[in-house]
From TrEMBL:
PANTHER family: TYROSINE--TRNA LIGASE, CYTOPLASMIC, TYROSINE-TRNA LIGASE. It catalyses: tRNA(Tyr) + L-tyrosine + ATP = L-tyrosyl-tRNA(Tyr) + AMP + diphosphate + H(+). It comes from Natrinema pellirubrum (strain DSM 15624 / CIP 106293 / JCM 10476 / NCIMB 786 / 157). A motif ('HIGH' region) lies at residues 38-46. This is Tyrosine--tRNA ligase. NCBIfam families: PRK08560.1, tyrS. InterPro entries: aa-tRNA-synth_I_CS, aa-tRNA-synth_Ic, Rossmann-like_a/b/a_fold, Tyr-tRNA-ligase, Tyr-tRNA-ligase_3, Tyr-tRNA-ligase_arc/euk-type, Tyr-tRNA_synthase.
Amino acid sequence: MDAYELLTRNAEEVVTDEEVRDLTEDPEGKRAYVGYEPSGVLHLGHLLTANKLIDLQEAGMEVVILLADAHAYLNEKGSLEEIQATAERMKAQFLAYGLDEERTEFVYGSTFQFDEEYTRDLHTLEQATTMNRAQRAMAEIQGDETVKVSHLVYPLMQTLDIEYLDLDLAVGGLDQRKVHMLAREKLPELDYEVRPAIHTPILADLTTGEGKMSSSEGTTISMEDSTADVEEKVNSAYCPPTRDPEPDDEGNERENPVLELFEYHVFPRFEEVVVERPEEYGGDLTYEDYEPLAADLESGELHPADAKGTLATYLDELIAPGREKLRELRD
Ligand code: IYR
């Protein structure tokens, strides 16, 4: 796979394609980042962007993981000390997941975001941005609580991070796109360069196929889940034999979350996927790509129950090293 393919595969959006193409001409040593508000246990949402970071490392890029402690503080996730303790566990799980230690730099936001120069730039950005604009940038990240001033400062700091970490590329879930658009608009006003961004899709809730998979509501899978938990969650997942399920009775759009997990989590990390079946049910099925598996589910060749059993096995293998790490940290 060439660098352009590695950077863009499974991306929902690339801003802009031309800028990313330029980057792929000589990706070796270029710096990309994702920022995470620290949380003690990684879940499939974190791992989706981590998959992209692994792709970037394979293309020769250096990866910066911003442990966004000050951002989590602004977003009322606890005291800075509490947030930093969970960040250390997060770091260990990322490495266990398969990020290349040599090409991964972990940076705490608070190590540079309180510096004088950064703070001055932040105040300049505050002058250059309307409250309405900052609030819109945060809408997807913050949820529906009351907007505080901290929520408006948050996207401006995220904008400055791109400059202060000396990056060539920003990566994030699609929920980060409005912040990245704000950054593209505002960085030049401070005479800083615009950087391209790559956005990964937001996956649907596992049980309903609706909305977005989240750690606070609905069902996701985390590094803390046991093999039995993973099996149980995947077995009760929504999995009609189609890629395009009908909306539910209230008109809510639905996805097939089992197929999404194969596409975005399993195939990028495994050379092939084997569905084990007894001879009397047709014997094993082997897939090297997502498309033929999805086609077999649609045609009825692959039964949803077999797809789920297989998905649970592969997801379990992906989270097992992180689960082990968490256990070690606890002992
Ligand atoms: N907004 C992110 C956290 C975050 C990301 C980046 I990229 C930053 O520079 C700072 C914070 C989230 O929603 O988790």
